[in-house]
Every structure is written in structure tokens, then in C-alpha cells.
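$ run holo --ligand "zinc ion" --emit C-alpha cells
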Amino acid sequence: VKDAKIQELKELESRLSALTHAQNLIYYDGVTLAPSKSEAARGETLAVLAGESHHLLTLPSSVDLVENLSRMELDAQTAREVKELKKEQDRSLRIPVEELMEWSRLTTRAEDVWHTAKLENDWPAFRPLLEKLLTMSKQMAGYYDADKDPYDVWLWENEEGLTRKQADPFFDTLKKEIPTLLQRVQEAPQPDTSFLKAACPLPAQKKLTGYLMDLLTIDPGYCVAGESEHPFTVEMNRQDVRITTHYYEDNMASSMMSVIHEGGHALYEMHISPALDRTCLTGGVSMGIHESQSRFYENIIGRSRPFAGVILPRLKELFPQVYENVTEEALWRALNKAEASLIRIEADELSYGIHILVRYELEKALFSGDLAVADLPGAWGELYQKYLGITVPDDARGVLQDTHWSGGSFGYFPSYAIGSAYGAQMLACMQKEMDVWAFVREGNLAPIGEYLREKVWRFGRTKTPKEIMDGFGGFDPQYYISYLKEKFEELYRL
Ligand SMILES: [Zn+2]
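-- output --
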């Protein structure tokens, strides 16, 4: 009986995986290649598929199956699958399917409206949708966990174990340390970054993407790079991972760093244990751990001096007019120029945490009701003035710059900052076991990937974020502050 039940469970998970595969592929197509007026029909299809997943998971036979299995003696992995599915089921049973489908339609429409609103600097067009998204996401949070504060629900969804109680002291540390360090940096002599703005032909930039993926040890048999407005990664399964980038002729570094960032996400997804294939335990465990990997590759490796030494010969070959006279040191300094700026995704490693702090404070205020959506652009401007000392000139470069809220993602931003902090701690631990920079200098990133595979990637969702970080001695944000101080004091000779 037990074996038959386990077989049924695997079939259920396999069908759910197939639906996710289809949804993710349609989503990927929607933001890369699909024609511009295809949004409405795609939204309907995605809503139907979301409804199908919900239906399948909550069928009386599925509920009975999970219920039966949760009372049996099972191997560790199957027991964990059952526990995860039960959690999903309990939650799904609380969300009316009409609401789930409405949520799916709303986010698809809002993403489309946001896209145009950002291009046209048209906040009034997006505002009513954001109001609906906020109202609905508070409602949805109630279905997830009626006893918790709605914002805490979304923090926890993105990073299991995280609530405002843990996030507040973390952001207080950033608030205390980063603006002061940033100010010292801005008063020091500044690096020349003019070559980063020079025209680099797109065909050569596309070649660079292939080279970087190769350098990162990404197997092109399982991962390809497309193009989209905002770079992102989506996985169908560990054997089909898609990343995207955005090419700008006069900002080659933008795509270069995006490819390295998304490549970090892709490596994680591609190296989850095959034993977890087509189960609910495959995929990265949390946004924070995911961002720790992408930001580890982008910032810690990709913006290190040894890495600048590795890629420079290739840049000279691909963009000879621009890079002919650029030195390793000049490239390293230029890629790390830190300053108060307007756009989060283009922000340097040092000021980045402040962009997140602003969003964290605004999300908290929106959810508590202290801030109305209508007043959001003003509040955004005030916080950029307060923490970074800069004036936000328009909504396109302010409140409309990020895609997250349009997709209904609240409580996601903090995971970027927490992920950066996780990454700095992972580096400190890695350095105790190997000469990280010697490998980077050789252009040999395989041992670094192997270390991360062993301690992070392979586990998928079989460990919580906290359990992953326990493998590095337990999360401690001081590693991040020390890392930033050391790096930027050296860069700016403070
Ligand atoms: Zn990312």
C-alpha cells in the first residue's frame, strides 16, 4: 500500500511540475519574444493554468493521499515532500480559486501597464493597479496566515524565518554603516569611468555573453540567454534554465554584470540534486539564498580585481578601440565606482543596500496604512533625499523603476540585501578552505562552484535558509559590513 501511495505522490508532483514548466515557459516567452499585443490572451492562459494547478493540488483524492502519507513512516526526502505539499494544500484550500485566478489576471495586466507607464513616465496610469495589488495582496496574506501581520507574511514567503523583527535590526545596521562609508568614498578622488560609456557594438556584446557563461561554467546545453527589458532568470527544471539580459550600446557593463548576476541564479538551479527532479523540493529554497548566489557571482567575483584581470584581454579583443589602453586596475576601479544614484539595478555594490532600505521602509508603511499609494512618489523622493542626498527628477527614475510591485511581489526587495550579506559570509568561510582569488586569477571558477554546490545548491528546498546559513556558522550581518569596509577602503585608498 505504501509503495502504491508513494507512486501516486510522485505522479501528482510530476503533473504539478509539468504545469509549472508550461507557466514558466509562457511567462518567459511573454517578456522576451511574444508580440506586443499578445498580453491579454496570454494572461487568460496563465490564469487557467494557475487554476489547474490549484485544482489538481486540492482535489479530494490529492488531499486524501497527502493525509494518508503524512501518517506513514517514510524516508526523509519523501517525508519532506509530503510536508511541503501539505503546507501548499492547506494554503490553497483557504484561497478561493476565483481569487487566485483574479490575482493571476491582475498581475499579468499590471505588469503590462507598468511597462508602458515606466516608458512614458506615467505614474497615474499605474497607480490604480498598484492600489488593487496592495489591497489584494493584503487579502491573500490573510489566506496564507491569518494570525500574522500581512507584510510579515510576504517577508516570510520570500525568506522563510524572516519577519520585521529580524529585518529591522539588519537594516538598522546598514543605515548606521553604509551612508557614512559612502560619504567618505564620495569625498575621495574618483575613478575614470569614461570608457564604460563608450559605444560597444551589440554583436560583440553578444559574443561576450557567451564567453562569460562559459567562464562561469554554465553548460549551454542546459541554459540559454535571451533579451528582455529587465534581466531575470526562470527555470523550467534543472535541465532548462533561461536567463535574460538587456544590451545597451553605450553601457556594455550593464549587460556584462547582468549576465554574471543571472548566471549565478542559473548555476544554483542547474545544480540542484537530480534526486529532487519533478518533486516539490526542487528549485532554490528562498529569494535570499538565490540572491546570495547571483550577487556572489556579480559583485564578489565579478567586481573583484582578479576577475578584471581575467576578462580584460577578452574585452580588448572584442572592443579594441575602447579597451586598448585600459589597465586591470582601471577596469576594477571603474566597475566599482560608488555613488549616490537613482536606479537600483545600476547601483554599485556599496550604495545598493540603501536602495533596498528605502523600498523596505516604503513597503512597511504601505502595508501598515501609514502611507497611501497616492503619496508613494513623494515618500520615495523624500527617502532618496534623506539617505542618499539626491533629488528624484521623475517617476520613471523613481517609483516606477522596478517591476516587482507590478507582479504582486511585496516583501521581495529585502532578500536582495540579505542575500548580499549571506554572500559575504559565504566568501569568508570559503576563504578558510581555499585560495579563492588564486582560482579567480586563473579564470578557474569550477572549484568555487563546486564549493557552493556542496554547501548550497544541491539541497534545493530540503533545507531552510537558516539551515543553509548554519552551514556557514549561522547568519551574521557583520561579515557583510566588514567585507564592504575592506573592499571600498582599498578601492578608494581611504
Ligand atoms: Zn537576482
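-- notes --
Residues 227 and 244 are 5 Å apart (CA to CA).
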